[in-house]
Amino acid sequence: MDDTSATEPALADGSETGGSGPNGYRCRVCGRSFPAAHLLVLHGGVRHPSELTERESAEFRAEYEREERQIRSFRIRALGTLVVLYFGFLFMYAIYAS
Ligand SMILES: [Zn+2]
Predict the structure, then answer these.
(1) Are 27 and 43 in contact (CB under 8 A)?
(2) Residues in CB range of 76: below 8 A, 6 or more apart
(3) At what angle do helices 37-47 and 54-96 cross, to 10 degrees?
(4) Per-residue model confidence as pLDDT tens digits over 15-74
(5) Please, what is the Cα angle at 59 between 53 and 60, to 5 degrees?
(6) Residues whose CB is under 5 A from ligand 1 (ion)?
(7) Residue 45 alpha carbon to ligand 1 centre in Å
(8) Pairwise CA distance, residues 32 & 84, whole Å
(9) 21 CA to centre of ligand 1 in angstroms
(10) Which of 55, 69, 90, 91 is 20 to 30 Å from 14 by CA-CA measure?
(11) 0.70 exceeded by the pTM?
């Protein structure tokens, strides 16, 4: 595989380059397809860690940290939503049930 494309993940076999659709990015080890490049990178690091090159491992670590930040952000927003709902219903109960 050539390294000419910066957006193409290293684990992709290069047969499918479409950015969307069920056959967007195909794993060169197991043949599974992913609709986005970062999903293929994460798949490679989780399912085929022994097959990764140095570049693919670096891509996986960077993508893993990026996803962890997204998950942490989602958890904080979900907790905030639950707190707002809880106190919203609590105040509605205090106002209308008395
Ligand atoms: Zn695979």
Answers:
(1) yes
(2) none
(3) 110
(4) 443 344 556 899 999 999 999 999 999 999 999 999 999 999 999 999 999 999 999 999
(5) 90
(6) 27, 29-30, 47
(7) 9
(8) 41
(9) 17
(10) 69
(11) no
User: For residue 17, how far is its CA from the centre of ligand 1 (angstroms)?
Assistant: 16
Mark residue 31 as left, alpha or beta (left: phi above 0; alpha: psi -120 to 50; beta: remaining): left
Where do the structural domains in the chain lie, given as residue ranges? 25-96
CA distance 61 to 2: 21
Phi, psi of 3 (to 5 degrees): -105, 25
Q: Name residue 76's amino acid.
A: I
Go through the chain and tell me how many residues it has: 98
Q: How far is the CA of 64 from the centre of ligand 1 (A)?
A: 16
26 CA to middle of ligand 1, Å? Answer: 8
